[in-house]
Design goal:
The chain is largely without helices or strands. Helix content is 3%, strand content 12%. The protein folds into two domains: 132 residues, Alpha-Beta Horseshoe (Leucine-rich repeat, LRR (right-handed beta-alpha superhelix)), CATH 3.80.10.10; 93 residues, Ribonuclease Inhibitor (Leucine-rich repeat, LRR (right-handed beta-alpha superhelix)). The chain has one helix and nine strands. It has a nine-stranded parallel beta sheet, with no helix packed on it. Strand 4, helix 1 and strand 5 form a beta-alpha-beta unit. The C terminus is likely disordered.
Length: 229
């Protein structure tokens, strides 16, 4: 399926629409009529832009746009203040499927991450995997409700000190970045139950990680050359 059918707009009672992995290149403006939607999954399509009518979907609590071809995040997204789960990153396939996915998938590489994203303070789950971040935007510091943050597959060499204030985090994925050291403040994130550091260049781990006594999952494996090929 390359195009969503027109009759979809008549299903005004819909609260959940999952339309991922369909190779969609565009969305009909009429999708904005589905104002009862609370969950919209458009992941792994080929969407380079999003229609302004989606700004009408102010009841959305979950929006998954991962793995499209987005270069610009439209300003109307700043009106979706009910969002608790937002994924504007990319889909990370298992290693054995990587060659095939590289040939068929599109990737989100926004040219900017606007400050209005910091107004979406209800977000508890945020996906920013593989969006070519070299540094974290300051607006992330406003998201004190975050419990899950995916920053895997970026180019982060250092982490800002304000991340130590995101003390509600229970899951943090920093896998496959360029981290050589970890700051001592990571020991402040005592609610963490999952910490993924796989595929970095860590020489040592800070003593403060011993404070993370709630951890159930810790991955500190080194760089796998397969992922750097």
């Amino acid at each position: 399926m390359r195009v969503l059918p027109d009759w979809l707009a008549s299903l005004t009672a819909l609260t959940t629409l999952r339309a991922g992995y369909l190779k969609l290149k565009r969305l009909p403006d009429s999708l904005g009529n589905l104002t009862a939607l609370t969950t919209l999954d458009l992941s792994a399509n080929r969407l380079k832009r999003l229609p302004d009518s989606l700004g009408n979907l102010t009841a959305l609590t979950t929006l998954n746009l991962a793995g499209n071809g987005l270069r610009v995040l439209p300003d109307w997204m700043g009106n979706l203040t009910a969002l608790t789960n937002l994924n504007i990153g990319n889909v990370t396939p298992p290693p054995e499927d990587l060659p095939r996915y590289k040939m068929t998938m599109r990737f989100n590489y926004p040219t900017a991450f606007p400050d209005w994203l910091g107004n979406l303070t209800a977000i508890t789950t945020l996906g920013l995997a593989g969006v070519n971040l070299q540094a974290l935007p300051d607006w992330l510091a406003n998201m004190s409700a975050l419990t899950s943050l995916d920053l895997a597959d970026n180019g982060l060499g250092t982490l800002p000190e304000w991340m130590g204030n995101l003390t509600a985090l229970t899951s943090l994925d920093l896998g496959r970045n360029g981290l050589g050291t970890l700051p001592e403040w990571m020991g402040n994130l005592t609610a963490l139950t999952s910490l993924d550091l796989v595929g970095n260049r860590l020489e040592t781990l800070p003593e403060s990680l011993g404070n993370l006594t709630a951890l159930k999952w810790l991955d500190v494996r080194g760089v796998d050359p397969y992922w750097r090929s």
